[in-house]
Amino acid sequence: MKTRTRDAAMAVTVLCTAVALAACGSSGDSSPGGGSESSGEDTPSIGLLLPDSTTARWETQDGPLLETKIKGLCGDCAVEHANAKGDVALQQEQMDSMITAGIDAIVLVAVDARSLAAAVRSANEADIPVIAYDRLAEGPISGYVSFDGEEVGRLQGRALLEAMGGGSERQIVMMNGDPSDPNAVSFKKGALFVLKGRVEIGKEYDTLQWRPENAHMNMSGAIAALGAGNIDGVYAANDGLAAGSISALKSNKVDPLPPVTGQDAELGALQRILHGDQYMTVYKPFAPEASAAATMAVAAARGESLDRLATDKVSTRGADAVPAVMLTPVSVTVDNIKDTVVKDGVYTIEQICTPGLRAACDEAGLT
């Protein structure tokens, strides 16, 4: 942990002024860069930089889990949390503010990995370790925690083939994620490994900022170009894109709906799966991912080596191979909701099974 010279109150003012529009918040008794005045010693401070509020998991799952685990490992740690709302410039400002405040470590989910590389370099020059979370960031990061992105795509591709059944004339629409997100590139690569040569890709889109409304617009264009009855399946890279695609299919009176993939095990996605609108999602267990990242962040804030915590090494542009923890994703369909997200306590049956879904939940064994 670095020695501080700034006054604690000044540090938190600098940070929260810059990120006020992104819901700056903190927990713990000390501010970033500020020591405990009663003891005269510095206490570790850790920043959590989330990318957007469009994808539900960041604020409902990852953020709370990360904060809880950090506080469990380091009761006197101060945790600063900010959300970039999908704005690259705002996230750069948030990074700069945390660096200025002299925070001890940053957990970063980059809005745009390439655009944040300069900020990651600035953190490294200030001796502030950056743990890339879920998405691989560019620049000299200190550690990385995520899931095997190509395996996510392979799970989605295999599920889509299974849902569409046999036949050689199957045509799909690919609704990929934002190409600035390295994960989106991995998901697409994994999906194409399974799908290429087995289906015809009628239309393919890269969906900027992972926005469901962009997926809706793209899917409407695909329907106009291909015809409502000529789409046998939809590869949607995550649940938000699945929701946008399904809303466009319904708006264009496509019936029955083709099978649609997803990812992130959002509550709405599970309900769409039970209703029959979405075929599957990919569950990336949030708790072990957050736990691994929090453990790395606390160790990094204390100046400890991350090598002992790693299960792998990962290289990124602008950095040597760094310690990494790579976890295994899980395919979720109507048949295993109870044995995955319910069993792990992500959602309760009561949360999933609204009154309108009671019959579908009974049929799926969610009782």
Automatic annotation (TrEMBL):
It comes from the Bacteria. Keywords: Signal. Residues 25-49 are annotated as: Disordered. Residues 1-22 form the signal peptide. SUPFAM superfamilies: Periplasmic binding protein-like I (SSF53822). GO terms for molecular function: carbohydrate binding. GO terms for cellular component: outer membrane-bounded periplasmic space. Gene3D superfamilies: 3.40.50.2300. The keyword Signal applies. It is found in: Cell envelope. PANTHER family: D-XYLOSE-BINDING PERIPLASMIC PROTEIN. This is Substrate-binding domain-containing protein. The lineage of its organism: Bacteria, Bacillati, Actinomycetota, Actinomycetes, Kitasatosporales.
